[in-house]
Amino acid sequence: xxxxxxxxxxxxxxxxxxxxxxxxxxxxxxxxxxxxxxxxxxxxxxxxxxxxxxxxxxxxxxxxxxxxxxxxxxxxxxxxxxxxxxxxxxxxxxxxxxxxxxxxxxxxxxxxxxxxxxxxxxxxxxxxxxxxxxxxxxxxxxxxxxxxxxxxxxxxxxxxxxxxxxxxxxxxxxxxxxxxxxxxxxxxxxxxxxxxxxxxxxxxxxxxxxxxxxxxxxxxxxxxxxxxxxxxxxxxxxxxxxxxxxxxxxxxxxxxxxxxxxxxxxxxxxxxxxxxxxxxxxxxxxxxxxxxxxxxxxxxxxxxxxxxxxxxxxxxxxxxxxxxxxxxxxxxxxxxxxxxxxxxxxxxxxxxxxxxxxxxxxxxxxxxxxxxxxxxxxxxxxxxxxxxxxxxxxxxxxxxxxxxxxxxxxxxxxxxxxxxxxxxxxxxxxxxxxxxxxxxxxxxxxxxxxxxxxxxxxxxxxxxxxxxxxxxxxxxxxxxxxxxxxx
Length: 487
Description:
By secondary structure, this protein is of the alpha+beta class. The chain has helices spanning 4-12, 20-37, 46-73, 77-86, 89-102, 109-132, 135-158, 163-169, 171-195, 205-222, 230-242, 247-250, 268-277, 332-339, 353-358, 374-382, 389-408, 410-428, 440-466; strands at 252-253, 260-261, 265-266, 281-285, 293-298, 308-312, 320-321, 324-326, 346-349, 370-373.
């Protein structure tokens, strides 16, 4: 190592140096400082401990700022409000503390403040690290130690399972920092909110349905019980799609509605025909014009009534009911609100429901074009068909006739109808049994056996069909006696 005498002797011969002693003192001081920077701190002085304490505090501040940046700003207002309503008592308290921060205005102020704190800590750290270690060690410390313990680990901890608890614990500290740096961060946040406005985090109905399906898929992939059953998932899908479904999507058209004449006498045959129709409510037909309806018969009110040919169905006051009138473009929630009023569970469909409900004589605009019932709305709601006993009974007959027609032609269907009529007549005793001779009895017997076989096969198919859920787009309505007039 060069000393002061040697330095002065070397500089004395130089014509460019006027003060040899001062120049040598500066050179020796610089050399000594550079030699000290290349060594680690020995902690022989109090200043080394102060520098180390400052490094620890700065790293902790940087870690806290980085963790809160991820932990607080990643929280959604909708998620916190759900926790406030459905969480435990502790979770509700934690979410209540965080809601003011997440919904704070300007929206970007929390983000800007935490990023500012993190930047200040990262910039101040080299000042103290350089005093404790050589340059290469300081760079290595900043890259490895600060990256792992000041960025990665805090972000993982604050976004992990304890995110809500950790963020709630630090909420008072974040509020203090917000107040401290508000003169700087508030104007910046206003500009960011103006040019980068907050997106609406409300979910659409399709997103809610997709979330339910995704939850079921994730539960299946992870091998845990599904939070929603298949029926609950279908119910959510039906509810979300209900407001987009109109009467035109579900109503029963005019040609498929069974009606009864308003002038039909209250005879035993009429009562039996109403019973055999299999409907609880049947529209009254006031003329031969299709759709000339004003009210309907509530069939259960006629149970126990004594036949009286002098009375027509239009005069059975307690059995008559006034329906609602709806239009084709009316939404199903509106129709459901009408049904909830208790007046009727049947609504007639027309082009002008207001006029249809008030006019005495129908014209083209006020004639009914079909009906919609509470059952139709409920089926859309649960996205499944509702079958009752009559649906199955008549479905067997319809499908059986179809199969007979396809396999044996129209004559087989006529033979089946003839056989049924003869059996009914035999039971009443009004028709004598057919002759045992000839081929007619053999054909009827074969048709009867085939009918029983087809009915059994169709019954099994319908039972299997009824046990399966059908989607809203693939449902098939089984209609009893489409377009048939009861009386």
